[in-house]
Amino acid sequence: MTENPVLLFDGVCNFCNRMVNFAIKNDKHGKIKFAPLQSEAGQRLRKQFNIPETAETVILIDKGNAFTYARAAIRVSKYLDWPAKMLYGFIIVPRFISQPIYKWIGRNRYKWFGKRKSCMVPSPEVKARFL
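RESULT FIELD:
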């Protein structure tokens, strides 16, 4: 679909939207592309990479691989500009620690951060970065 990494996210989740806005702000060269999980492109990629509907997470499609949960969130930072790129250092945290923490946040994201009635609509400046 694209040579660039693609971040799939819950388009109605306020926390997820903040994460996407952080990535957009800290990726001045536009390396990362985005798609809400609720979109046609998001659903197509989810099926293509066999990500179950029950996986409530961000998904990073990068170089033919799909990363979920904490691994997706951490790997996104690899494409960000400095100093945000330093977040990639969290990749050293073992999966058995990072994944449960991420899943706990994911289960509570609507309660803690709220939910939108519809998916975010990208501004004209960043619309080209959305699939």
